[in-house]
Design goal:
The complex is a heterodimer of chains A (about 170) and B (about 160).
Chain A: E1 7-16, H1 20-28, H2 30-36, E2 41-44, E3 51-55, E4 61-71, E5 75-79, E6 81-82, H3 87-91, E7 94-103, E8 106-115, H4 121-144, H5 156-164
Antiparallel strand pairs in A: 1-8, 2-3, 3-4, 4-5, 4-6, 5-7, 7-8
Helix pairs in contact in A: 1-2, 2-4, 4-5
Chain B: E1 6-12, H1 16-24, H2 26-32, E2 37-39, E3 47-52, E4 55-66, E5 70-77, H3 81-84, E6 89-98, E7 101-109, H4 117-138
Antiparallel strand pairs in B: 1-7, 2-3, 3-4, 4-5, 5-6, 6-7
Classes of the chains: A alpha+beta (about 170), B alpha+beta (about 160).
Chain lengths: ~170, ~160
């Protein structure tokens, strides 16, 4: 897979009063992610080519992927494939890149969701709804020590768009 | 092809009234908006101005005002020559209760295709709104230097 063919279709930038190391840890550890990501556990093998899993609270593998760029605490690229039948076959892989930079007393975190083809706004609405909630929670957790509970559900227009092209969703 | 626009959503542990106050009070905006102050009586049709060190950098008119739910104003930039010839744009703030939180959606639109202003705006809002969230949640200013905004149009 040539990751240069993947273009960012959704980008979200957030500034956090923290250090690059803590932001990196919050993005890549199950202990942190469960607190800000609706109980989902990020399980990453910390090396290039390592496995990347997001485990649902019921223990199932919700997202499976692999580490494609690994430069702690500055840059991480993983594949981020939701385990719904036929999703990757019909839409291709999803890549997520995190870039972490210092900006004064804050850290700038830029998340890019990248795809190797054009996708409709309806399909992209899943990420565009989810990322602000996930990263708002991560910021609150790092700054105040507690993460708000932001209950998210997949947008109806995304589920309808996936159903229309024959992807079975839960 | 979607229209050139910027949309940003953030979730803040606050109340709609406090968030409305933070968006419309110059004492608040000075703390999170790179020192800028908003000026308006927030009535539909009234003038809006954004001032930095006493100088009007942007101005417009209140288009919608429904406290504490929805606020919209037109936005015309004056300070930087590179941006002065771009059309009048529009900012819409939507405030919605979301469980114990508030969801703030900022929509900024009315840009020309290929203009510089969209880049400047896309660059500025995440920093401004991150600082606003920090101020409301932990009562402390998040100091992001302007020079740190090294993407898009370089507005020093």
């Amino acid at each position: 897979m040539n990751i240069d063919q993947f273009k960012p279709l959704t980008v979200y930038t957030i500034y956090i009063a923290s250090t690059p190391e803590k932001v990196w840890e919050a993005l890549t550890s199950a202990e942190f992610s469960r607190k800000y990501f609706s109980g989902f556990a990020v399980e990453m093998e910390p090396k290039l080519g390592g496995s990347f899993i997001v485990r649902a609270p019921d223990g199932s593998e919700h997202i499976s992927g692999e580490v494609f760029e690994y430069d702690p605490p500055r840059k991480l690229t993983v594949s981020w494939n939701i385990n719904w039948p036929d999703l990757v076959a019909k839409l291709g892989s999803t890549l997520v890149t995190y870039e972490i930079e210092t900006a004064g007393e804050a850290v700038r975190l830029t998340m890019s969701e990248r795809h190797d083809r054009e996708l409709s706004d309806d399909i992209l609405s899943g990420g565009r709804t989810g990322w602000p909630a996930i990263l708002s929670g991560l910021k609150s957790l790092l700054e105040t020590g507690k993460a708000p509970q932001i209950k998210m559900a997949p947008p109806v227009k995304m589920l309808d768009a996936l159903k229309a092209i024959g992807i079975k969703t839960p | 092809m979607s229209k050139p626009q910027f949309v940003y959503v953030t979730y803040i542990e606050t109340t709609p009234d406090k968030l409305w106050g933070a968006l419309t009070s110059s004492a608040f905006t000075r703390q999170y908006w790179f020192g800028a102050e908003v000026r308006s009586d927030w009535k539909v049709g009234s003038p809006f101005a954004l001032l930095l060190d006493g100088e009007v950098t942007d101005s417009g008119e209140i288009l919608e005002s429904d406290p504490p739910r929805r606020l919209s104003y037109s936005f015309k930039h004056h300070k930087f020559e590179e941006l002065r010839n771009e059309p009048i744009s529009r900012v819409v703030f939507t405030i919605e209760p979301f469980g114990s939180l508030v969801r703030l959606t900022v929509l900024h639109d009315g840009f020309v295709e290929g203009g510089k202003y969209l880049g400047a705006v896309s660059n500025g809002w995440p920093a401004i709104l991150s600082a606003l969230k920090s101020l409301l949640e932990r009562g402390k200013i998040l100091d992001i230097p302007r020079a740190a905004l090294n993407k898009g149009f370089d507005a020093k």
